[in-house]
Amino acid sequence: MKKLLVLMFLISTSLFAGTINIAVAANVSYAIDDLIKQFNKQNPDTKVLVTLGSSGKLTAQIKNAAPYHIFMAANMKYPITLDNDGLSLTKPLVYAQGSLAILSSKEKDFSKGINIVKNKNIEKIAIANPKTAPYGKATVEALKNAKLYKSIEKKFVYGESISQTVSFSITAAELGFIAKSSLYSKKMKKYKEGINWTDVDPKLYTPINQGIIILKNAKDNKEVKAFYDFILSAKAKKIFKDFGYLVP
To answer: CA-to-CA distance for 179 and 28, rounded, in angstroms?
Structure first.
């Protein structure tokens, strides 16, 4: 009986050993699988559990004691807030810099860049919720700087995260402002630059510096530290570049 109890204990502990929980901004959903695969080449026994969402909602979960070890946000604001609240073990660092693109599932004339939104045949435009999603905030900033916001505000269809906004862009709307990184996923490669999408001039919005922190409940967790170090490594930077990010 004692041997059976010991065996059951070893099995139960092994199920939870080497597991880390990371909260990840939705725009990173397209790159995260490749990042984890690369990380596991050197750390095969570490299981990485991922929760995706808007940075604002993930921050609210962390403040309410969600059991995450690492937070990879879509900007620096939310990690800085958590650090100021004493919920971080590390100071926020930039792991990648995101950029905006305009997407349509149908062929469009993108020669005028962001001014394509003035097309009278475009009735709905998808953007991420600017209250919770940094890419949504950047979209609003770009449109205001281009003197276009007021004339098209009524056309907006809001996604709660950038991944939902991508979905709306190719289903519920004629155009959508999305994270450029989403265009590098396998499902999105059929959409071609200049035909289905174009970059938003980066001069129109504040650079989207995406921040990472280790959260307080990961204290003394070596596997969490290993993943954190990997995300800031040259190997991870190459993957981010492959998915359309700029890297510091």
So the answer is: 9
DSSP string covering 202-241: GGGS--EEEEEEEBGGGTT-HHHHHHHHHHTSHHHHHHHH
**Residue type at position 66:** A
Q: 2-97+209-242 has which CATH code? A: 3.40.190.10
Mean pLDDT by 10 residues, the chain (248 residues): 38 56 94 97 96 93 97 96 98 96 95 95 95 92 98 95 92 95 89 96 94 96 97 97 88
CA–CA gap between residue 96 and residue 2 (Å, rounded)? 52
Single pTM value for the model: 0.81
User: Which class in CATH covers the domain with range 99-204?
Assistant: alpha beta
Tokens of 196: 């289905």
Domain with CATH 3.40.190.10 in the chain: 2-97+209-242, 99-204
